[in-house]
Amino acid sequence: MGIWKLSKILPAAIITGAMLTPATSTFAEHGGYHPYVGAFYGSYKARGDAFDDENDFFEVAGGLKFNPYWGVEASYTNFGEIEETFGSAEMDGFGAATFLAVPVSDNTDVYGKLGVFFSTVDVEFAGYSEGFDDEQLFYGLGVDFAVWDPVHIALEYSRYKIGMDIDVNASDIDIDDPDTDVDTIKVGAKYFF
Prior knowledge:
- The structure is a single chain.
- The chain is mainly beta and 193 residues long.
- The chain has one domain (3-192): Porin (Beta Barrel).
- The protein is built from 2 helices and 10 strands.
- The chain has helices at residues 3-20, 26-30, and strands spanning 34-47, 54-65, 70-84, 87-103, 108-125, 128-148, 151-163, 168-170, 173-175, 179-192.
- The strands form 2 sheets. The chain has an 8-stranded antiparallel beta barrel.
- A hairpin with a 6-residue loop joins strand 1 and strand 2.
- The radius of gyration is 18 Å and the shape is elongated.
C-alpha cells in the first residue's frame, strides 16, 4: 500500500473509528497511568536525491501514559530495503519520544509527538558498502481511538530525518545530502495494561 493511497483512506478511517468506538475511556474508568504495547504497519516515502521510492514498514512500541494528556514512548522501526538501479539501502532504528494528547471525546484523543530517532542505514551500490548511524529529531501527529477496552487503534503521520553522509554520484543515484526526510503514515493497535 503506497503512502498516498493510505493518505486517501485516512479521513474515512478516522470517521469510521470515531463512530465505532464506545463512549468510555480507559482513563475515565481506571484513572492513573497506564503502560501499553503496540504494533503498527504503514507506508513511507523518502524525499530528496538519494532514494525516492514508496515502501512499507513496520513498528513495535511500548509506552507509558501518565494521565489523559501526557506520556512517553519507545519504539523500534524497520523501514526495510530501498532498491534503486545501482544499489540499495536498508534502514531501521530506535525512537524515544514524548507525546501530548488532547481528548476530543470520551474515546478519542488527538496527539502530537516529539522525539529522537537513532537510525542505522546500510548502503550498497556499485561495489561501495558502508553503514551510517545517526540521531535526529522526529515528530508525529495522530489520532487514538479506544475501540474496546483495553485495545486502542491509532493512525499517525510522522516525519523522520535519516542521515547518510555520502558524497557519491553514480547515474541514477546521487547521495550528497547528509539528511533525507522520510514521511510515514501508519495504522496500528495498542494494548493498555
